[in-house]
Design goal:
The complex is a heterodimer.
Chain A (H helix, E strand, L loop, with lengths): L3 E12 L2 E12 L3 E5 L6 H8 L7 E6 L2 E2 L4 H6 L1 E4 L11 H11 L4 H14 L15 H13 L5 E5 L7 H16 L4 E6 L2 H7 L2 E6 L2 E6 L1 H9 L1 E8 L3 H8 L4 E7 L2 E6 L5 H10 L3 E9 L2 H13 L1
Parallel strand pairs in A: 3-8, 3-9, 6-7, 7-8
Antiparallel strand pairs in A: 1-2, 1-4, 4-5, 9-10, 11-13, 11-14, 12-13
Helix pairs in contact in A: 3-4, 5-6, 8-11
Chain B lengths: L1 H16 L5 H24 L1 H5 L2 H27 L3 H5 L5 H35 L9 H28 L3 H25 L2 H13 L2 H26 L2 H4 L3
Helix pairs in contact in B: 1-6, 2-6, 4-6, 4-7, 4-8, 6-7, 7-8, 7-10
Classes of the chains: A alpha/beta, B mainly alpha.
Chain lengths: ~300, ~250
């Protein structure tokens, strides 16, 4: 298997007057989980469709597992798995029939098919309900079954388009754990789009942020946090007012100040030196009760990138 | 490709038989009831007349057309309406495999059921009304019915594909296709009546004078040409890059 599972060069897709993906350059290492983040309509699904060869790029090119998406899309689909925007299950079928149909599509022999279906359903806690038609199942159970379907043929690359969208936190965490143990355990490359930044932070080795089809940033979540989000401090106390915020912003090491639910959140442009900040707050009459130092979250980075782009 | 087409046929038939909730209930409503009605009840009631009537072969040609029309819309427009199409397109199956698998499932069901009903009807008539004689349809009639109903079913299927791919819902696709089929049927009857008397006389002379085989060959040739035309159009339309944008 090639070391780079996905490589795009100036990948672009236009729909009438709208440019959905704009000159995308990406590299995804094989055997890693790659998070593709962006707001609604940013071009994430269009990118997945192009990588799977379902849509032709308007210009540029992409290689998936060393195969060209324009000329070898059939081969790409043969060795990839996909969980697209919705579970797309045949609701009149039982869980077992849904998997059986796709196992036949992947040409898995009868004995192995039975074994693999049993293994996946057991792992996902659905074996006892395998004979039930899926029409009355919860969204979380359907999504689990769709994950099993995407993993049936042990694909080298799995595309997951917002797999935890619409799930409650418990179901989302369970699905994430299942994905981690099944897909990552098999050594597959995972290309994951999500709105859930905490999920991306926990699950992905590298992430890319896209907006209006343009790539804004790419890197390890830690790298992005230190490059874009920097360090931050949270101050609990009393006496915060607009003058205090203005005075803090005048300090060269302070990049931003914000009041969130009565707490003061300070973003640092470089090193987070708290002593001058606390000293200034005390001088200005603020009653400081607690100070917490920490890194910006991926969500902070994401919001910063979105604000920069809007500005 | 044959194995993949069979996989699609397996899935389509399973979907028909599960329409009633259980596989057994589906088999009963989709196979046992039509076979019982067309292969046992009607021949039983009609007696020897069933095997001699000129209407019977026409019924065996129209029956699969309507069965195929119903199933093909459910198969194509339904797959899109239930949002299962994109995932199917993201699998390793080729566009043509999906297309031919769905057409084969619809034609196989409609045509197979018609031929099975005809065979069962013959058995019923012989058992109930034979009284020691063997009642048979002329071999030529059987061949004509088999060939023309197969070609007509394929025509309904390929027209159904094109209509379904343009329809927003299964219901809309079924209504459009049913109206089109009724238009062809009634259009033919009323069109024939509206012809000038000398044209009607010419047509009557031509077809009455011609051998049944010749007439079948002409009709079959026309149907085959239409089949090829519509299947080519369906192949051109049923492509991932176009379907994904629908």
């Amino acid at each position: 298997m090639p070391e780079i599972a996905i490589r795009t060069e100036e990948l672009t897709r236009d729909f009438a007057n709208v440019r959905a993906v704009d000159g995308l350059n990406l590299e995804v290492e094989a055997g890693t989980v790659f998070g593709f983040l962006g707001p609604n309509g940013s071009g994430k699904t269009t990118t997945i469709r192009m990588l799977l060869g379902l849509l032709e790029p308007s210009s540029g090119r992409a290689e998936v597992l060393g195969l060209d998406t324009r000329t070898q899309s059939g081969q790409i689909r043969a060795i990839s798995g996909a969980l697209l925007e919705n579970p797309a299950l045949y609701e009149r079928f039982s869980a077992e029939d849904n998997l059986d149909f796709y196992a036949r599509i992947w040409r898995i022999g009868a004995a192995e098919r039975r074994m693999r279906i049993r293994q996946l359903l057991n792992h996902l806690g659905l074996w006892e309900r395998r004979k039930e038609t899926v029409v009355k199942w919860s969204r979380g159970m359907k999504q689990k079954l769709a994950v099993a379907r995407a993993l049936l043929h042990r694909p080298a690359l799995i595309f997951l388009d917002e797999p935890t969208a619409g799930l409650d936190p418990v179901a989302a965490a369970a699905l994430r754990a299942d994905l981690e143990s099944l897909a990552v355990g098999d050594g597959a490359t995972v290309f994951l789009t999500t709105h859930n930044l905490a999920e991306a932070e926990k699950f992905c080795r590298r992430v890319a942020v896209i907006r209006e089809g343009k790539l804004l940033a790419v890197g390890h979540p830690d790298e992005l946090r230190s490059q874009r989000g920097g360090l931050k401090a949270e101050v609990l106390g009393r006496g915060f007012n607009p003058e205090v915020l203005l005075a803090l912003r005048a300090l060269p090491l302070v990049a931003s100040t914000e009041l969130q639910n009565g707490r003061l959140v300070i973003g640092f442009s470089g090193k987070a030196d708290l002593a001058p900040v606390v000293a200034l707050l005390v001088t200005l009459g603020v009653q400081v009760e607690e100070v917490h130092k920490g890194k910006a979250s991926l969500e902070d980075v994401f919001l910063t990138l979105m604000e920069e782009e809007t500005a | 490709m044959i194995r993949d087409i069979w996989t699609m046929v397996w899935k389509e038939w399973r979907e028909i038989f599960l329409q009633r909730g259980t596989f057994r209930g589906g088999v009963f409503s989709a196979i046992v009831i039509p076979l019982g009605l067309l292969g046992i009840f009607i021949p039983w009631q009609e007696g020897r007349h069933w095997a001699q009537s000129a209407i019977t072969p026409v019924l065996w040609v129209w029956l699969p057309v309507f069965l195929v029309a119903t199933m093909i819309c459910e198969s194509f427009a339904g797959e899109r309406e239930r949002k299962t199409l994109e995932t199917l397109l993201a699998s390793r199956l080729a566009d043509r495999t999906i297309l031919f698998g769905k057409i084969a499932a619809a034609v196989g069901y409609g045509w197979g059921l018609a031929i099975a009903s005809m065979a069962l009807g013959l058995i019923t008539v012989n058992l109930v009304h034979g009284h020691g004689d063997l009642i048979l349809l002329p071999a030529q009639t059987i061949l004509v019915v088999c060939a023309i109903s197969l070609l007509a079913s394929a025509l309904a299927a390929s027209a159904g594909v094109l209509i379904s791919l343009r329809a927003a819902t299964v219901r809309q696709a079924q209504q459009t296709l049913s109206l089109s089929l009724m238009g062809i049927m009634f259009g033919g009857v009323f069109g024939l009546q509206a012809l000038p008397p000398e044209w009607k006389a010419w047509l009557f002379r031509t077809f009455a004078g011609a051998h049944l085989g010749t007439t079948t060959l002409i009709g079959g040739g026309v149907l085959l040409a239409l089949d090829l035309l519509l299947i080519s159009a369906a192949m051109a339309r049923f492509q991932r890059a176009r379907l994904i944008l629908d």
